[in-house]
Amino acid sequence: MVLAYGAFATLHNKDISTISTKKISIMELTITLLNGDSYPLMVEPHTTLGSLKSRINQLLRVPTERQRLSGVNGNNISLSDDSKTLSDYGLHSGSKVMVLITEPTHIQVFLKNEKGHRHTHMRWCRVRP
């Protein structure tokens, strides 16, 4: 099989006969960090937010669980459901996606046992908005 211009094709007697064509729609988003750095990223409208976070991870080396995204296409949109597509959020070519990189926070827990001894435990966790 030969992939030509988004159409699936086969080669028969030196001719390319198209089996089916599929219009591939690509949009360019601008990924912007709080420090002002911007990066163009080409994606398809049906890309899920989870997949976009994976692409941002590949681009910026920021783990997906540390990314908080918001879309800017006239209004600020909180992008929080990883299963929704970019088009579900109304993002289109030219939209900006702001990336907030979060740090894990720690929680200090104080415990007192039945003998009155106190113990302190530190835990790192991710706080959801």
TrEMBL record:
What is this protein identified as? Ubiquitin-like domain-containing protein
Its taxonomic placement starts with: Eukaryota, Metazoa, Chordata, Craniata, Vertebrata
> Which positions fall inside the Ubiquitin-like domain?
27-106
- What CDD domains does this protein map onto? Ubl_ubiquitin_like
Under the heading InterPro entries, the entry gives: Ubiquitin-like_dom (IPR000626), Ubiquitin-like_domsf (IPR029071)
Q: Which SMART domains match?
A: UBQ (SM00213)
Organism superkingdom: Eukaryota
- Species source reads Coregonus suidteri
